[in-house]
Amino acid sequence: MAEHHKYTNFYRAFEERHRGSRELIESRLEVYLPFVEPLKSVYEAPEILDLGCGRGEWLELSQRNGFQAKGVDLDEGMLLACRELNLDVYQTDVLDYLRGQAADSLSVVSAFHVVEHIPFEALRQLVDEAYRVLKPGGLLILETPNSENLLVGTSSFYLDPTHQRPIPALLLTFVVEYAGFERVKTLYLQESPSLATAQQTTLINVLDGVSPDYAVIAQKKATEDVLALFDEPFERSYGLSLNTLAERYDQQAEGHAQWLQNEWNTAQQRIEQLCKWTGQLETKLAAERQKAESLAAELSLAKEQYTQHQVIGERRKSNVQLLQNEWDATKQRVEELNKHTGCLETELNQLRTHTQWLQNEYNQLQTHAQWLQNESNQLQTHAQGLQNELNATRAKVHELTYSSHHWWTVADQLRQEQQSIYASKFWRFTWPLRKIMQAAKWTLVLPARTVRWAIRLPKRIASRLSGTGSNPQNSVAAVYPPTIPEESINNLSPRAALIYTDLKKAIEARKN
After folding, report:
1. Which of 369, 397, 425 is the last residue of a domain?
2. Are strands 89-91 and 183-189 parallel, antiparallel or unpaired?
3. CA distance 454 to 83
4. What is the mean pLDDT of the chain?
5. Which residues are 184's β-sheet partners?
6. Range(s) of the domain holding residue 468
7. Strand ranges (DSSP E) for 356-473?
8. Distance between CA atoms of 52 and 38, rounded to whole angstroms?
9. Could you report the per-residue pLDDT of 490-512, keeping only the tens digit for each?
10. Does the pLDDT value for residue 295 go beyond 70?
């Protein structure tokens, strides 16, 4: 009986640990209240039937909000939790109970996390029967895990041993539309609130950030004024689907790529502008060089004219002086042109240096990227080495554990053999004989020790009377010679050599 009670409450304990507390589930179910509240203005005392009611969270929430709620479930442990709260529940098959209801008799039929437990044909029959028993404008609510979420579709869905297979949202939507419902709304539920408003969406958010549950809410055909009461909740959007997060991620990726393209275009424009400026400066420099060459030619011509004027004579000294002044002015102009040309060359060199610096920066970025790649490869290699060392250590630990267990087994066997000897009849029977042998041994040894003591007594008395025994140094020197041959010391064991060294230090300390 105790074993039966243990397994009766198994699924109830499983739900409490892995699905959540009653308070948490009730807070999640409040999202459906805006859909069912308008039914109060359409029907007096609307009735709700919850298929697979479990612990009764939806029944309790519905009753608090003015609905007549009853539930059906096969699990006895779950129904015990409902009866503790005085909820109206029945233990029977959900399809059988639904077939027993009259047509157009219920306002809401709900099934939270039920459809993934039943075969697909049973799901179709459940939807058809729900359409039959619902009143015009009545609602069918089906909630189930969302397989678009990577963690749900590959892991947490199979945590429940009674799950058969995930039901995709598109399939469940088509099933209720095919059954004849007027309009259908898909709600994505239980996603992270921070992700819903996050500015950045990562790839891991796309994989495991999708709403872990979804619900399909289908409404039976009714008059337009009745359907209009439900427009507001049906027109809202709920949760995060895989397409929503994927579009967010693609938009972010496109924005980042556009930013990189803009940066690259800006850099190219800057380089083109620098090249254009460099070309202009080179053109100006060439023009100045042509001017300098022209002035040099004029200077050479002036020198020739000056030579001719010197040959003519003194009378043209004034003209020579004039030519000298013109020469000085021309020379000054040439120096100014050379100075200006040097400035232009300096500016051109600066532009070339800046262009080379930009090229070096680009090369450094490429080198740093290669270094990061090498560092990543080294870390992977080091991680593999650590894994190999860990495997070798585990093997050594396993070997030592086996060896210690072997010697412990041998010691235990020896201890058991010793205890068996002590507990044997032979050991108990020979106890008097062992005691007799010990007494005989002392009886034989005592006279011999007495005789040796009597023989040594006169020598000790004579030694004390002669005074040789009064100096402890003499007795120590007599017993232990002051020196031992080096060959004997070398033949001693390390332990004996250490004892000899300590004794020698003690004798020397007494002599001093």
Report:
1. 397
2. unpaired
3. 103
4. 80
5. 218
6. 435-511
7. none
8. 24
9. 666 777 777 878 888 888 887 76
10. yes
